[in-house]
Every structure is written in C-alpha cells, then in structure tokens.
Write a structure and sequence with these properties.
six-stranded antiparallel sheet, about 25% helix, alpha+beta, DUF4863 family protein, about 180 residues, five-stranded antiparallel sheet, PnbB
C-alpha cells in the first residue's frame, strides 16, 4: 500500500469518530487536546502528508506559484463518511509576502468560505511556521473553522502543510473578499 492509500486508511477511524461533530472553537480545543502534535494520529498523518508532498501526490498543483499549492487527495466517498481530503502547501518565504502587525512575513492565499466547516491538521515544515485559524495562529495541531465561516488562509514563519477534511467536500471561492 502506498503512502497516499495509507493516509486515507489512517484518516477513516478519525473521521468515523468526528463525523457527527460540528467544527467550532470548542471542537478545535478538543482536537488539540485529544489529537495534538504528540498523539499517534497527528504523528502518523503529519508523516504521511509530508511524504505525499515529497512524492508529489499531495499539494502538487500551483494555485499562485510554487509557494502556494494544493490538491484534492480524495473526493467525498462513503468510506470517509462523505469527507473530502485535501492538502495545501504554503511558504511565507514567497516574494508576495507581507508583514503582519508583529513584523512576521505572511503569505496570504485565496479568500474562501466553509459552508459546512473544516477540520484542518497543521503540519509545520519549518520550525515556528504557523497557519492562521479563526482562533488565532496555530503551529502543530488543528484548526476547525465553523460552518459558514470565511477567511484568507495565511501562513507565517516559513513553510507549512494544511491537511484538511471538508464535510461533503464543500468549500467555496464564490465570496467577495472584504476590502
């Protein structure tokens, strides 16, 4: 079994456990407590998605240059309780970065919305890399944007992979970004 198939198989018991939960700040706290960076689940998924990026089957399609890439690993299927699996690679060393209020280099991705929310595993590739979640900046761990939430994905501190699970595969880029 290849690493892509291993990642999907490793995700199924997790998705079975969370399939009836609603993404939210409370769920995000639960995910980070239950499946934080020292947990076997986090370690396995992080290893497998890093392998996927290295092997070229994950986050392999440029969205806006080589420092902002994504790919759908699996469409929603009954085996994953209708969750899709997607990976995004972002690196704040990109020339299009900007400085945030704390003078960190930040790369901003495409504005989008989550009709049914999102479960997002954050895997820093560089020490100190973080992804901005709705509750603030997140290093190794999880974010869980609420149903109906909208945001720009942002990374600071270097490169990170976001491995995310979308209920019914729903994500929308049809929203006008705030000015």
């Amino acid at each position: 079994m290849g690493s892509r198939e291993q990642l999907i198989e490793r995700s199924i018991p997790f998705l079975r456990e969370v399939k009836d939960m609603t993404p939210s700040a409370a769920m995000e706290r639960w995910l980070n407590k239950t499946y934080g960076e020292d947990s076997p689940l986090y370690q396995d998924l992080a290893r497998l998605i890093k392998t996927g990026v290295d092997e070229g089957w994950a986050a392999n399609q440029e969205v806006d240059g080589p420092n902002y890439r994504r790919s759908r690993i699996l469409e929603p299927v009954p085996e994953t309780f209708q969750f899709s699996i997607t990976a995004v690679y972002m690196n704040s060393a990109d020339p299009r970065r900007f400085k945030d209020g704390d003078d960190h280099d930040v790369l901003r991705g495409q504005y989008h919305g989550h009709p049914y929310g999102e479960l997002n595993l954050v895997v820093p590739l560089d020490k100190g890399a973080q992804l901005k979640g709705l509750q603030g900046w997140q290093g190794p761990g999880w974010t869980a944007p609420d149903p109906g939430s909208r945001h720009y994905p942002e990374v600071r501190g270097g490169a990170a992979i976001a491995l995310f699970y979308l209920p019914a595969g729903r994500i929308s880029y049809d929203f006008k970004a705030p000015s």
